[in-house]
Amino acid sequence: MRNLSLIATEYDSFDYANAHLTATAFDLDENVLYATSERKNLDGEVEVELWKVMQRKGLNRDVQTPPNVISMFTSMASSNEPDEAPQVVSLRVVAEERRIAVIMRGGDAVVVSIDEEDSPVEVEGTFESGILAASWCPDESLLVLATGDQKLILMTPTFDVLSESPVHPNEFGEDAPINVGWGSKQTQFHGSLGKSAAQAPTNVKVGCSPDDDSIPRISWRGDAAYFVVSSLAPVDSQGFRKRVLRVYDRQAALQSTSEAVGGLEHTLCWRPSGNLIACTQRFGFEGGGLGREGRHDVVFFERNGLRHGEFSIRPEHFRKGYRVRELVWSSDSNVLAVWVETEVGDVVQLWTTGNYHWYLKHEIVVPKLTSFQWHPESTLHLILTTQDAIMQRYYDWETYSSPSKPPNDTGLVGVLDGSNILLTPFRTQNVPPPMSSYQLSAKYTAEQASSLGYDVKNVVHVTFSEEGDALAALWEDGHAQIWQLNTRIGPGPGKANTTTQVWEGRVSDPASGQWRQASLHSTDASGRSWVVSALGSTPTGSKDLLATVNIDQGRTVRAESFDLPARNCRLVDSTYPVLYQTPAGAIRRLEIEDQVGSFPEFCLHAQTSRNKEDPSKTLLVGLGRSGKLYAFTPGQDTRILATNANSFTISSSFVAFTTTAHDSKYIPVSELVEILILEEPEAEAKLKDVQDKWTVRKVERGSRIVVAVPSTMSLVLQMPRGNLETINPRPLVMEVVTNDLKEGNYRKAFFSCRKHRIDLNALVDHDQEDFLRRVPQFVEQIHEVDHLNLFLTMFARGSQSPETIAKICDAIRDELEKKGRKKYINTILTAHVVKDPPDYESGLAELLTLRESDPSVVEEAVKYIIFLVDAERLFNIALGMYDFSLVLMVAQHAQKDPREYLPFLKELRTLDKFYQRFRIDDHLKRYEKALKNLSLAGPERFSEAIQYIERYQLYEAALNIWKDTDQYKAVVEVYGDWLYERRELPQAATAFIEASKPRKAMVAFEKNLQWRELFDLAFLNDVPEEEVKDMAYRVSEDLHSKKRYIEAGQVLLEYRKDIRGAVIAFVQGNAFSEARRVSNLHRHPELLDEVIRPGSLDSRAQIAEDINEMKEQTRKQRNRIQELRVRKVEEPDAFYGTEDVVMQNIDAMTDVSMAPTAFTRYTVAPTSVSRSSKKSSRSKRKAERKIGSGRKGTVDEEEYLLRSLTKLVDRFAGAREEAKNLLPHLYEFGGEHRKEGLEMQSELTAFEQELKETIEEVWTRSADGEVDPTTATAEDTWAARMAEVERSRRINPLDKVSRPDVIRGDKWRINLYEL
Questions:
Q1: Using CA atoms, how far apart are residues 284 and 288, in angstroms rounded to an integer?
Q2: Compositionally biased, Basic residues: which spans (predicted)?
Q3: Separation between Cα atoms, residue 277 and residue 256, nearest integer Å
């Protein structure tokens, strides 16, 4: 759907030099064009001048530098070729040698140095027979020549011969096909004619075209791997000479020969991409192609010499007496240029292909061409030469699309194909190219065409009006036409367009310039007044011309012409007053000549989004050749929206663009404008923040935007192969839906969401309060039951809160009930069912109400609700409403087997009311409700209720039901028994007390060792003293087993009066002060020597044993940590278990037991890829439990040792506290006890110092560049958790384990020991 648009021209005249230009060549390093001019003198020699033409930077030259001659030489002229054949066969700049090579037809190979001024001309060699054709390979490493003695010579850039062979070899080549006869004439059935017909020789005459110039042609493939030679074969037995193509490789070895093609001409060009070799063929004469007379095709060959497609060059464009001179492919292989010589001048046709159709995109009319070529690197840059001028034309791809706005946007797109403009309105039709909805034939009138040398001429540019649905076509000579298109917007029969020509004329004097772009604007709503603006330039002028023509009712009212400040400007599409862009990218207004803004580079594609209320918020967007998408508002800086864009359009409220990353993005215009009007730092930061919020949609590779149609919410894309795809991006859809909701057009919005799979919650989320107010309007517009049901169902599945869902459903249900319950019963049922939680009971109640008022529709309603809800579930809900008639109605329509439910219903009917409901609720597993009904069934059912409570553990519900009744205590006792069985002893005891069961409460207190509550309750209930003593003995034994020695001593002392047993318990609990107090209080001094003194020595021995154990552990772990840290530094791979990248795919686990290998990472056991990939859930949990176990040799060991040291510090603090209590008593006891106390204090002090030094050393951090410990993994899966563990193991363990504090103080010491 794209067209070739002429964007710039350059003209270099050589009138003053009496030149005769014949060839051009580019120096890509210096951006210089070289040209040769030749003239024959009277001596039969040819005089050659070498001209240097400086090239532009951008679309305009900064300084106009005239061409200058850098060298001149004379060579022998060849007289064997036609007069029109130039004497310069090849002109090439050899970049590596920094010299120009000129191959002359007379046989000379001339070179001229580029870097040296006035360098002498050197003749590297001469071929006496002359040179017929020459071609350099694209990388300039080889040169192929066809000489006059029919030899093919392969040479180096220094003209050393590599190979020499005849131009007409007899063999086919290395790629000769093997013919097994399949499908040939010899293998076919010939009926009564028999075998003789198969063996009869065929007599097909194959000759060349009468236009053939008999000169061979050579063309290289773009990758320089092959070249093809087209030569005229010798005369055959029938007197014909035919053109033959031969393909050679880089070593000049023949690969293949083409099949015989009648009428094949001399033209030849191999497509740079390599898939096609282009030639031309004439038909309709003896020896020519088999076809109608006058047919003339461009034909294609493959590398193997076989034909592969063709297209007609449309000879009807020319009058009789024409021939095709040359073919040239553009450097990107997209455009084929055809040079046609006619009786009155030359024409260059530019052809492109898409969807297997060839389009004639452009025609260039030149009085007399001498050469033409494409730029070798810059795509779509064409260089033409006449005898006295060099014309350079710059093209680019442009889509001619209608800028019409909603609601009248047609989505019209025009495609040029010869004299036809192919129109397709994408609002109503998506017609794949090369077809179209309508073909507009844009031709000159008969009077104007008769004065030209050709009957038909191509349009150079097409533009659409924003209002009025019209099209303007502009020809390069200034001729223009305006057509009223009358595009059908809505569906229906008839043509897509009904065109009417409104005006035809010229935008200016025919001799004043060459025109390349037009713009059309309607000045009134009736479509009768128009303004056509045309942009062009004169060949030698330094400024562009802008012509405007005012038309009223088909007549020219006023015509004006303006000079623009520079050459090669560009009109900004669909702007009035006219905006134009200079070659530097500046955007200017025509009338007041002020600069609106500027793009950093020239942007061929530029569009505007006008804000009529505030012109300062008008948005201008442009796409440069670099792929950068720019945007600015008047008076503000330009911002880059993307750096990899390949197409864009402004669709109503969005800037949509595609990227080379195969994405399409959508930027809200209002949001973008608000950012662009901000100041520099704030705007840049805001733009970066919002880019991630832009809607992104993946598209097919290479997709480009054709047109956007806001009214149909569509964006049309074209794929690289030419086919079209219409998508409906969510932003465009939501824009239309939002506008419809604002206008209260709920029906259109609903169907748009339904068609494009938009969540129907959008109808409510737009404005919930407004929707609730307009519920009657919503129901009035969307009156179909199925659509209402769909809305309620989808709305309930959305992200709304249950309260919102209930509110909307109730509002719609109320409105439907007003309109008629009978008609909308299904929707009313849906409104009940989709709530969260569903209100099934209310839905079934609706059926009961409907059964009384309209029994005729009940059956369908029941079937519908069964469709919404599972039949079994609905049966249970109806049963839970205790209405047997409703149950039977649901069961019958659900097609349940009567044998399944009738016996149960009959049994229920025989029971009394509450017991019947109890059975129903129990059947439905509504246990609490069943218990409530059972409690109402009478006191005689209480024992059954107790069993029911115990069966389903309904204790809390039972307490609420029987509260303040005579049976309450019995329920509490049952509850207490249940708590006792669950070992919730404190709560069980409280329950037993509430139930007046003190004995059970005492048992619970005793089991839980709550001895204070136990004895308090025992005394309150006058328990005998002997029983209390027995109870005290049992409790003390249990406390002693739990190492609660001090509490055991209290129980023995207070409730059993066992002084000795109490003192022993106190000593075991290290409560020596309490033991001495009790023994002295109760006058038992013998206990001091018998129990307390020996007990103190036992405690001292236990503390010493603990200190020695802690000391040994500290030293071992300290040494191990040092060893691990040295290993981590010296052997990190072995420590962390880093795998060799080369061996990642090797499975280290086998069926045979094996020693640990390099694959051992975190355990000493071998692991494998295969085993780890098949882990079960159990093995995964086991692996997680192993993490952090601290097994020796694993990376977790250091962390485990640090945590162990932390626990050791806490253990030492406890031992020190025990020593603090024991030391005073050892000192007071004197003698051996004092000596032991002194030793214990010294041991504790020494170990305290050692432990502090260990902690200081271990927790000293080294600068080892550990991993940041703050990094976390968000995903909570087993693989993610294991990955997090693996990452965390690289973290320094010191970051995981906090350093413990060893508080060194003297408060626990006894200073008298040291005196």
A1: 6
A2: 1172-1184
A3: 13
